[in-house]
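User: Hi! I'm working on a homework problem where we have to compare a predicted structure to a textbook description. Could you give me the structure for the chain below?
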Amino acid sequence: MVSVLLATTGRPDMAEACVSRVLQTTEGHEVEVVAAVDADPVTADRLLELGAEVAYSPTLRGPSRAWNAALGKARGDQLVLAADDLEWGEGWLTEALAALEGFPGGWGFVGFNDGHWGAELSTHFLVSRRLIVEEFGGVIAWECYHHSFNDLEANERARRAGRYVWCEGAFVYHRHWIFGERPQDETDARLLGLHEESERRYHERRAAGFPNDFEAVIA
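Assistant: Happy to help. Predicted structure tokens:
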């Protein structure tokens, strides 16, 4: 099974479209969507109607804690770090799973083609449960990051393990406001104010070798 982990709040239409497209583009695969929804009962209800598993919080946890909450509910051997502003291309999962088979034992990290960064940075990705346990410290996001930098740490940990590949054919377009793909909204603005602190923590953690100084979600 593949578990798609979505963190979302305040974007019911975007979240609904995202989950609907995940389901449309993964027919023939065993897939579950686990959505961690913060302080947004409208979105939670809509995603439940689509068949998603929902990890709901009445307060704003932020994306890192939300992704980890979704991880705690996930059943899949392969996990996908997802966001509500992604557009899932045809065959993205088939391509990603094929790339995964290139690793010895068929486990590792497959970065998606988000239409912007290329192989230098996989902002969203598929990662094996085994890698999360053995190389990520049992989390899919690091809760010291309130805005950005989860992708950088995940990429570097996967590369360090020799289990990183970028898959051009796994096209999952990222409609982020910084690229002018959509207007900045309230959720963007709230998190943007936390960017500087997250950047500082990233550089500290990188200099220290990315210590596992946190509690694991899965083991």
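For your comparison, note the following. Helices lie at 12-25, 41-49, 63-73, 92-100, 129-134, 150-160, 186-192, 195-207. The chain has one domain: 2-207. Good luck with the assignment!
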